Amino acid sequence: MDHGELDLAGLVWDIKAWGRELGFGAVGITDCALDNTEAELLAWLDKGYHGEMDYMAKHGVKRARPAELVPGTLRIISARMNYLPPQAAESWTVMGDGDLAFISRYALGRDYHKVLRTRLQQLATRIEAAVGAFSYRVFTDSAPVMEVALAANAGLGWRGKHTLLLDRDAGSWFFLGEIYTDLPLPVDSPASAHCGSCQACLDICPTRAIVAPYELDARRCISYLTIEHPGSIPVVLRPLMGNRIYGCDDCQLVCPWNRFARTSELADFSVRNGLDGAALAALFAWSEHDFDTRLQGSAIRRIGYERWLRNIAVALGNAPTSDAAVDALHSRAGHPSALVREHVQWALSRHIEAAKLERHGQD
Q1: Is 141 a catalytic residue?
Q2: Domain with CATH 1.25.10 in the chain
Q3: CATH top-level class of 279-355
């Protein structure tokens, strides 16, 4: 079918309705214009804020030029999906208990890449059934895509000072996904920003990774350090990580707009393996087989067992001194990985120093 013969406005209405049926909280349409975003990306890369995420620099400006990434692209269908588990343990309570592990709430259930990609493909299939064959490509954090900028341009929210997308009615507890297409759909208007003078996210960041409004130094971000960073975590940052072993939600937890966030209605994002408040020592005792089997289908699995132990070792070093914490660390002191051994020794030295200070205080 010739695209010129389509009722494009009616098709957009249908696409948004189908999106809601598939579990998306909202769907919007935008064009390929990302001129300002391209300049911001290049400035961010020039400052080295991407750390060891070489893929951020590898694709260069293609990330900000959708039509170069997928030739023929005219529009981007942007969609968001709520992920906050409805029955997860209260986040601040978990972070306040140094014997427990805090895991970013997005990673407590099934891997979002699989969930969103499947739903977006189903949406594309429904569009194809309605209009005939058309050119498209589905993305879910899987290619050089400026998803926050595209979603903002599509009217799904605005880029908050913490650099995440925010919406007045949904906060920020949602995933984003895109369909690049050659359909010349009518576009939505960008949403206006509503952060105002608030800088709660900057103030709460444990490592001061949000160096200025709308500017994140990933090298200091706990999410980067626990997930993307492959090597030794800088010693100066380890005490600031607390018990966060995979990701960090502080900037979202403190954001006033998340008072209006909605929990997910999808069983895929329900808590698995009790990871919303598991004991650090128990997770540290997992064998590599335990890690691989229990986290099958989880986003956490992609960091690998070595980083899993590295992260937990840091958290155990920040935990209150106890026989359980110290014994757990000693159990991995001879681990084959030099990376794990280094972080275990650092953690044990923390407890040795704490014991010395306690004895000194009693003298």
Answers
A1: yes
A2: 279-355
A3: mainly alpha
